[in-house]
Each structure stands twice: as C-alpha cells, then as structure tokens.
Amino acid sequence: MRTVAVAGLVTLVAVTMYAIVADSPEEPTATAVPAADSDTAASSHDPSADESASAWQDPPPVLGEAGDLVNLDGWLQTDATSLADIDAPVKIIQFWTFGCYNCKNTLPYLQDIYADYHDQGLEIIGVHAPEFAYEADPANVAAAAVELGVTWPIALDTEKTNFRSWQNPRRFWPRTFVVDSEGNIRFDRIGEGAYEQLEATVAFLIDEAGTGA
Amino acid sequence: MGPLLEGIRDLSQACSLSLIVPGLAVVLSARNRRGWVVGGVLGATWFFAWMKAAGWLPGTPDGVWSVVGGAAFVGAGLVSWRGASSVSGVGSGAVAGALATWLWAPCVGPQLAYILNGAPEAPFRQLVPMGMFVLGLSVPILFVALAPVAIPRLRRVLAPVATAGMFLVLVLGGAMAIGWYDDVVIQLNRWSTPAS
Question: Which end of chain A has a smaller Cβ tally under 10 Å, C or N?
C-alpha cells in the first residue's frame, strides 16, 4: 500500500512539473463543429467544420435574438448610455472581467480584429462582469483597460444582471457573442479560442451589412 | 493529456479554485477513511461538472439556497470529521463536490472551452475529458490523500490537520451561506500566490 502511495505521489509531482514547464495546452484541433447551446439558443459555430477555416461557406446561422444590456453601473470609454446608442452594424459583445486569465488571453485577438474591422462598422462592447470585489471598482476597471490595451466601450455589469441573463443557466468567463445589424446572435463562444471563426463571422456580417471596405 | 494539464495549470486561478477548495477542506477534515472521502469528492465533482457543462444543472445558488448549501457543506464536513464509515465518507465527499460544482463559474481556457462548447450537443463525448480536467484540478486533494500513506511520519499531524480542515469547512460554509464564498476563494488564492 505504501509503495503504491509513493508511486502515486511521485507521479503527481512529475505530472504537475510537466504541466508547469510544458507549453500551454491548445484547444483540440478536432474537426467537429462546436455544439449548439440549448440554454441561449446560441452556440459556438465554425465556418466549415474546420477549425482552421477562415471564411463561412454559408451565412453564419441565427442563434437567437440578442438581449439588451440593462441595470448597468455605467459605461467607460464611450458616450453611450445604452446598447442602442452603439451605432454599429456588427457588434462583438464579450462578457469578461479584468482579473480573469482566460479573458486576458482573448484580448490580443480582439485587438487585432478591432484594428481590422472597426472602421468598417464593427464595435466591440466589453461587458465587465466582476468575479471578485476588487474587480467591481470602476476605477480598477478603467486602469486595467489602459494596462491591457482595451480601447473599446466597456459596460459595467457590476451586479452581473446581464452576465446571468445572457448566459442562463451556464455562466462562464469569457463568453463572446457577435450580434448582427438585425439584433440577432450569429456567433457564440465560451472561453478562449475560435478566433478565426470569430473573424470570419465579423467579416461576413460586415460584408452582409454593406459597410466593408 | 490536454485537459489534465490545463486542470493542473488552472490551480493558479481563483475561479478554478472554487471548484476544488470545498473538497479539499472536507478531505482535510477527515480523521480517517480519507480515501473514501476523496473518492466521493472526485466522483461528484466530475459528474456534476459534466452535468453543468451539458446544461443539466441550474445556475449558481442565491438567497435561501445559499444558506441551505452552506449548512449542507458544514454538515458534510462534520460527517467527514467523525469518519464513522466508508459510506459516510463517500457521502460527505460527494456533497462537498456537488456543492463546489454548483458554485463554480469558471474562467475557461482552450481545453475547457472545447469541453464546454461541445458538451450540450454531444455530452457523453465530453465525459472523459471533463474527468481529466477535474483530475488535474484535484492534484492537491490527491496529494493530501496519498502523503500520509506514503510518508507514515505525517500521520502524527493528521489530528491537528483534521481540526484545521474542520475550521476551514466552517469558514467556507459560513461564507457560502452569506454569499461571501467568492471573496474567501480569492483571498485563499492571494495567500497561495507569491507576490510578483
């Protein structure tokens, strides 16, 4: 029994050390289309059942109607006071919090997409849903936005009203939606990854809206 | 291996710790039959995390359910501490694992994202990957379970460790009941993370 326990401990230490020193695990590259999500009538979808695809073969499906953003604690980096004030035919709405490691990992990709498509009609709305008390202070959010290079509008969902209503019953950080000019959700992603699909969706919808370059 | 490694890496994140700290506290509080408690914690955490991924669990508790959850957690800790039988050990661990999963609102890395995005459509395909992820997160629990067996000298400190574990159960149970659980987890994370 003791030998087994010692072997188990050694294995635990070895695997833990390997996890620490190894490269970050990437998302599996299986070709399956990420699933439809029954709880929001929205889902992660990729363009052509291929994670590396960069263009939609067909229009990205309508996954449901986007809700409004309500009971906010205010907005940062915009004069808007409601989602309707954001005048853009294509919107990425991401639920995030600045202390979340996985949320931060998505930001470089969002920044690239923002740089490429903002002038063509894309707006990103970062709905900041704090997990912990120190993340709820708007001053801390503003400082983190500067530090992280988040230049798009931020909606302060301090009470997490929208975090809950948009993600019922499964709630995660981060979660990224793309909303088209008709107010329909055309892309939904839990967590990191699917950046090419995200960009392909944005490109398609901007083309569809006729605001592209 | 990917979900397992990501689970281990996620131990550094407070949002992931919330899945494992209650189970760890109940395991620490067990004065004997610790292996059964570990089995209950791991099995329930795996099963309910998978259920949650598939969208078959309700959202996080609030209001009166927070109080019920906190009380159930303290009860599980007491049962684990008394350690009367293997059944009570498994049961107390299972209650702790189920409650932790109920309270879990994870930050999602690439591997867990794949599981969560795929589970609603093909839940059984994600059962094993979710188990691997939970196993990775459970390294501290496994360590606590194996260490006294592998290093007999550690058994001398099991009694004070169990008392400390029971204290942690009371703190976490109280925090769950009054809605401060997340703040307790972030504080634990700060204590366990070296200042940069």
Answer: N
